[in-house]
Amino acid sequence: MSRAAVLAGLGTHVPSRVVTNDDLAGVMDTSDEWIRSRTGIAQRHWAEPGIATGDLAVEAGGRALKSAGSGDVDLVVVATTTPDHPCPATAPEVAHRLGLNSVAAYDIAAVCSGFVYALASAAGAIAAGIAERVLVIGAETYSTILDPQDRATSVIFGDGAGAVVLRAGEPSEPGALLGLDLGSDGSLKDLIIVPAGGSRMPAAAPGESGARPAGTYFHMQGKPVFRHAVTRMAASSRAVLDAAGWTPESVDWFVGHQANVRILHAVADQLGMARERTVVNLDRVGNTSAASIPLALGDAVSAGLLNPGDRVLMSAFGGGLTWGSTALVWPAVEAG
Ligand code: ACO
């Protein structure tokens, strides 16, 4: 790409309500010990009823614009699997609420890989001269699609939003995306699915008890997803390292999708990277799907781990199945 997409701002937001493992053990058959040892998660944030994905996106997006030092963007891309409505997209209203009236705005649905897909879409718009500055937001309220009876999913996911501003620049600048690798395997779409609510199976009316139909909840077959996540994230990461001309040992921070600390360590092992180079914040926020990578970036910057000049590898994996990776040298950007 002659015109590179350069990271120029970062902002994050999680709802204030904290749900601990012990809170969940009080309402379903699970334990703090099981959740911590199988996933690494200690707590997650869940939005209060009535708070939607767009509300979290506006908070994170506003902070990213402030961090970038300018509210001037000409495109807003929101990655989410939990949009405010099936129609229209969430991004136009988010843009409007941020005072960005009349800019282009659309959603990307690539589940937990959504943020990397959105970065690719934004970088493509910059490379094509369609946009100069893009606000990319990953935002989710999985608490609205989790089956409260399903311990296999309820303990894993959290709500939150993270955003970056990308601007047109030079490939040699710190912050330039140095390669993008994306992929999918739709033959395995049933491994991660909300069956109802789309055209294949329109959402049914609540049952006589007023209960929500089971098909409108999120389902995941954890074991096979785990295996595919490790294989695909490792292969995708290798492709991006090759494009950037980096060895695994030269990477300062691996910022992988925060699904499970065992997955992150397994990917690091496969790449031949020290596990200590892995950024982990899922212990505090759980799996926030499309918000996961920017939330991890924000935490790593705030904690003083991630500093200007550090080599950062990002890799995500999620429903679809989908996966994607990118890399950059961290620029002089503070988390908003
Ligand atoms: N508490 C207690 N026990 C539980 C719980 C729970 N919350 N959940 C499951 N168990 C039980 C199961 O019933 C099972 O019991 P059994 O052996 O008697 O049958 C046992 O624990 C083991 O269950 P598994 O599902 O095999 O547990 P596993 O070690 O695979 O961990 C997990 C499950 C954490 C979901 C793991 O498979 C995982 O992380 N998968 C990948 C998730 C992922 O990467 N997602 C990314 C994409 S998400 C997206 O795109 C939205």
Layout of secondary structure:
Layout: E1 4-13, E2 18-20, H1 21-25, H2 32-39, E3 43-45, H3 53-68, E4 75-79, H4 91-97, E5 104-108, H5 114-127, E6 133-141, H6 151-154, E7 159-169, E8 180-184, E9 192-193, E10 219-220, H7 222-244, E11 253-256, H8 261-271, H9 282-285, H10 292-302, E12 311-318, E13 322-329
Parallel strand pairs: 4-5, 4-6, 11-12
Antiparallel strand pairs: 1-7, 2-3, 6-7, 8-13, 9-10, 12-13
The structure holds acetyl coenzyme *A.
Description:
This protein has helices at residues 21-25, 32-39, 53-68, 91-97, 114-127, 151-154, 222-244, 261-271, 282-285, 292-302, and strands spanning 4-13, 18-20, 43-45, 75-79, 104-108, 133-141, 159-169, 180-184, 192-193, 219-220, 253-256, 311-318, 322-329. By secondary structure, the protein is α/β, with parallel strands linked by helices. It folds into two domains: 4-169, Peroxisomal Thiolase, Chain A, domain 1 (3-Layer(aba) Sandwich); 180-189 and 217-329, Peroxisomal Thiolase, Chain A, domain 1 (3-Layer(aba) Sandwich). A five-stranded mixed β-sheet has the order 1-7-6-4-5, with helices on both faces. Helix 4 (91-97) links the parallel strand 4 (75-79) and strand 5 (104-108). Helix 3 packs across helix 4 and helix 7 crosses helix 8 (261-271). The model has no long low-confidence stretch (mean pLDDT 96). Residues 30, 34-35, 38-39, 111-112, 151-152, 155-156, 192, 222-223, 225-226, 229, 259-260, 263, 287, 289, 317-319 line the site of acetyl coenzyme *A. Acetyl coenzyme *A binds next to helix 2, helix 6, helix 7 and strand 12.
